[in-house]
């Protein structure tokens, strides 16, 4: 894992939650709370981050030396929605066009132009244990969730659109919640998952918000768990642009387009190991999508 928000020991303050790599001892990702800082030593409380929260263990003093690389843990660096109006507008578009979107996207076997969604989901299942607990981030109409349930998996789904979630709660087994996937305080992020599926859930976020979602996923995924991310692709520069929606014709929505290297870097910066990357074109979308399978 590359250290995010790297800082020098001179910048440390009492009360800071930090982690560091120590190249002398070989100890990596040590987590601690700073109590006091002296010229050559730190008084700290050792800590560990678990799915149930932050656990404090031993208070002690440690020497400061040049081999220590300090950083603030990325999963404690929350990025709130930077444009609340965009979130509100997207929510209104999906809720007003829910019936159209359901009609155009709810087929479990939807596929087109070699971008077979079933094939992508089967590959995802290849990377995870049977009977996995899967978090479906931005689950939409539940098309993918229903497929995973058919394959004997358990599902927790989250989406901003209330009609989608209401329909899933009424017609489908397991758990579904309304919420903003960027928010790290969501109840669904207080649990631990065997695998996480993020299919087109980043497309209406800006880049900082997308990073936050990836960090949220890393924090709640079990060790060796698999994360799938599928989102819009550009071969040039990562950017946002507004376009007419193909899933809800007549509406204009903002879209985030990622280059392959930028999306891979977002994942590796959060701590993920890339397993496989591919490009494809899905169903009613004209744009190419990038699909990345990664492991914690």
Description:
By secondary structure, this protein is an alpha/beta fold. The chain has 2 domains: 6-74; 84-295, Rossmann fold, CATH 3.40.50.150. It has 7 helices and 15 strands. It has helices spanning 84-96, 98-105, 117-126, 143-150, 162-171, 207-220, 260-270; strands at residues 6-7, 17-22, 30-37, 41-50, 53-63, 68-71, 133-137, 154-159, 175-178, 193-199, 221-232, 239-244, 252-257, 273-281, 288-295. The strands form 3 sheets. A 7-stranded mixed beta sheet has the order 9-8-7-10-11-15-14, sandwiched between helices. A hairpin with a 7-residue loop joins strand 2 (17-22) and strand 3 (30-37). It is elongated and about 65 Å long. The termini are close together. Mean pLDDT is 82; it is low at 74-79 and 108-115.
A few lines on this structure:
The protein has 296 residues and is α/β, with parallel strands linked by helices. It has helices at residues 84-96, 98-105, 117-126, 143-150, 162-171, 207-220, 260-270, and strands spanning 6-7, 17-22, 30-37, 41-50, 53-63, 68-71, 133-137, 154-159, 175-178, 193-199, 221-232, 239-244, 252-257, 273-281, 288-295. The model is unreliable at 74-79 and 108-115 (pLDDT under 50).
> What name goes with the CATH superfamily of the largest domain?
Vaccinia Virus protein VP39
CATH topology of the largest domain: Rossmann fold
Q: Distance between the terminal alpha carbons, to the nearest Å?
A: 10 Å
- Structural category: alpha/beta
> Could you give the count of β-strands?
15
The SSE order reads: EEEEEEHHHEHEHEEHEEEHEE
User: Mean pLDDT, as a whole number?
Assistant: 82
Number of helices: 7
Second rung of CATH, namely the architecture of the largest domain: 3-Layer(aba) Sandwich
Q: What is the number of independent domains?
A: 2
What is the radius of gyration? 21 Å
Morphology? elongated
- Portion of residues within helices: 25-40%
Beta-strand content bin: 35-45%
